[in-house]
Amino acid sequence: MRRIVILLPFFLLFFAGVLNAQRFNGEIIAGMNFSQVDGDEVYGFKKFGANTGLGVMLPFSFKKNGERNWAVSMEMLWHQKGSYKKRYPLDPNFCDTCPPEIQCDSGIKYRLEMDYVSLPLMLHYTDPRTNWTFGVGVAYNRLFRIREIENGVHTATSLSSGTYTLTDYDVLFDVRFRLYQRLKFNFRYEYSFIPIRTRTYYKQKIGHYDPEPWDRNQYHNILTFRLIYVFNEPKD
User: Fold this and answer.
1) Most distant pair of Cα atoms in the chain: their distance
2) Sign of torsion, CA 83 88 94 99?
3) What HEC string does the chain produce?
4) How far is CA 52 from the centre of its chain?
5) pTM given for the model
6) In this predicted structure, what is the pLDDT of residue 21?
7) Share of the chain above pLDDT 70, in %
8) Least packed by Cβ within 10 Å: which of 38, 91, 158, 205?
9) Spatial CB neighbours of 46, under 8 Å, sequence gap ≥ 6
């Protein structure tokens, strides 16, 4: 990851030379994630987290002297992901996905907190009629903090436990529009295309364990809402 950070400015300068661009747009980004982990038997975008950082965008045109409706961008973000459920099903005799070594309690929550440094790389197109900008891209994410609580107990999950992968690769879809002058609103959808974990689950009732557990791959699934302030962009 350190090499990627060091190479970031050289990467952008390379695009500047290739595309004959005249202007970089700097960005300050602040927003919130609504996330879940597909495959963890906990449902809903109920884990809230930060999505903040800095970005740089390089407008360009595929036509010489044409209007610069295209752009490439790269960001460096503090990106919080995870999963959350307040309680298990209300049936006191039923507890879903509790591993046998943990005492089943249907009234205790599950919480997964994962903090990443994220480096998204995106291609954007701005519709000249609406001035809305649409983007698609990929992101490299490096985990630097993790905490998991299951049935009210902190699990042994850590950066060194090998429970989750330390790197996460996502595909991104992005739309943004101007709110006022250089302030823009941005919605982003993000999904892992490589599993972050494969886990064995147990369907159980109090005092009884199903002898046939099952395995599921897990993926991040995230809705993001952000405000972006753009530097060096002409005001509307």
Assistant:
1) 73
2) positive
3) CHHHHHHHHHHHHHHHHHHCCCCCEEEEEEEEEEEEEECCCCCCCCEEEEEEEEEEEEEECCCCCCCCCEEEEEEEEEEEEEEEECCCCCCCCEEECCCCCCCCCCCCCEEEEEEEEEEEEEEEEECCCCCCEEEEEEEEEEEEEEEEEECCEECCCCCCCCCCCCEEEEEEEEEEEEEECCEEEEEEEEEECCCCEEEEECEEECCEECCCCEEEEEEEEEEEEEEEEEECCCCC
4) 11
5) 0.83
6) 44
7) 76
8) 91
9) 34, 36, 83, 84, 85, 86
Pick the CATH number of 2-231 from 2.60.40.10, 2.40.50.40, 2.40.160.20, 3.10.180.10: 2.40.160.20
Amino acid at 228: I
What is d(CA 112, CA 38) in angstroms, rounded to the nearest whole number? 12
How far from each other are the two terminal CA atoms of the chain, in whole angstroms? 37
Please state, in angstroms and rounded to a whole number, the distance separating the CA atoms of residues 99 and 222. 26
Tell me the per-residue pLDDT of 51-74, one tens digit each, with 9 for 90 and over.
Answer: 999 999 999 888 777 778 999 999
Spell out the domain ranges in the chain. Answer: 2-231
- Which amino acid belongs to residue 61? S
